[in-house]
Amino acid sequence: MKKVKPVSVKTIVLGRTGKTVIHTPLAVSSNAAGSQLNQGTSSPITDAVDVDNVDVPVFSPDEAQHSTAQRRICNSVVNWEKVRDKLFMAAVEEESLPEKAVCVVCKQRESTVRCRYCGPRQFFCSTCAHDLHAERNQFHVLEQWKDNRFIPLFPNHGAIESGHSCSSRVLKMFKLIDAFGNQHLFEVPVCDCESHAVTLVRCQFWPGSPERPSVGFHFKLMDLAEKLFLHSQVSVKEFSELILEMTPPLQPNFSTDGCDLDTIRQWMDNEISEIVPREKDLSLQWDETYVELLVTASKLKTQIAYAKEEEPSQVDILERKMLRNERTIAGLEKKRGIRGRWQENDATFQIIQQRLTAKKQTNEVLRLHKMASERIFLLELKAKYAEGQAIAIKLSNQIDKVVNSMNQGLATLNGLMEDEVAAFEDIKDPGRKLYCELNCSNNTDNVPAGIKKKLVHLLFLEDRCKEEKTLVKEEMLRFFTFLFAQINAITSYLDRESANRGLMSLLQQKIDVYKKNLQLLTSMCKDLVAFPNFEEPEETYQLFSEVEVETPTDVENLYDFSLFEDLECHSTHFRGWNDEDFDQ
């Protein structure tokens, strides 16, 4: 008997949006009524078509308006949904070691190692896995079955040969990142015949630095990075984050940023300790204070003699200063038991004066160093704003004040220095030679000072972000409390006052708006702030299809026209109306 293929009905619908073609497949109904109607008959269509095996899409009236591409996408989604559970279970089953699995190489020993890079279901014993990956496939990440799970296995594969033999070569440990972003620790033989960067290139790895690198990146990974940079405009930061996301979480990261928050904070403490302890040690001792008072008394005597001849008005002021200074000297001599006043030509006086001058000079250098740092900070801050802005003008004025203070300190410093004379160029930058003793650090790390400064600034920024986060949480709670208070105030007003229906409707709408804002606030920030419970808002809108439509009612049943029949009213034409309008 000849089989008949399934057919469909082609319907062309002409509407305002244009012509639409609908293909409706004819499906055989398998319900009870259809079976009763077909009893005793044999149809070639039912014999040829297997309804259970043919995937016939069923369309609703709304889906009939969809295009062929939309229906194809819907059918694809449905078909994927059918196999979703099976795909999931298959993937889950492959994450365990099969029972009584035998090594695929020796076919004898029980397998305990898996290598997905070698192919699917490649299970090895420990011996075969090591032998297979000892001299080739060295960058395959093996997985060891342990405690009912697979963990990354990085066996000691030995050294990677670059093809260069030399009697002076030594093995150096490198952090090598393969084509998949996995990080490995491998020994590579290096020598003095060529640089370490060239040796890494021979091993198909791009060096991380031109001189004595410690990290290498596989050429295929660098090719991928180049294509992403040029084609997709992906930044280095995003590419690095992508590599970290692709790396399995159990795999170790040998190449880190080199420091953590504790290290950065230690750098901050070291930078502060370089200056603060010196300020404490530079406090004057009693003998240094005594010598300073004696030097001040000598200067005041000279100033008084000069003022008597040139500025008589300043004599009284200087004499009062001289009197206070003498009282302080007398009190110190009495306290320390000094019977005879020290003279400038005494050896003790000169030694203490040299020590005092050195301390004053160091104190002045420290003060200038702080002002130089402040000047650089203000200049960097001013560079962020355009000339003429109010904040830029304020910063310029502040810079001028700092520069004037530095010039005054420079004059004081030159007065303390006997052999050398410093200029403003020598003190304007914190990295100048004059501040070398202050900037010298005892740290043994190789992190550049500029990188340390950036990390310290980032740490400060993180601390400020935490403070801002706390403030935002408090602000959200205050906003929540405000909305809740507004709802309670309006609700209590509606319960207390008998307002008209219009006002009640507006107030109820206002309550709905506040509740909607509360719901939006809690949904957006529920992971950040624990909000109190509140009554969720009801529906604020309805679809037209959800509204119940009442049956048509005759107008005469709604309105009583008997009053008009009792009145003697004449037909009057209104402007803009005629009899034809009323007839319609």
Automatic annotation (TrEMBL):
The CxC1-like cysteine cluster associated with KDZ transposases domain, residue ranges: 165-242
Pfam family name, one: CxC1
UniProt-listed InterPro entries: CxC1
Tree of life domain: Eukaryota
PANTHER family linked to this entry: CXC1-LIKE CYSTEINE CLUSTER ASSOCIATED WITH KDZ TRANSPOSASES DOMAIN-CONTAINING PROTEIN, CXC2 DOMAIN-CONTAINING PROTEIN
Protein name per the record: CxC1-like cysteine cluster associated with KDZ transposases domain-containing protein
Higher taxonomy: Eukaryota, Metazoa, Cnidaria, Anthozoa, Hexacorallia
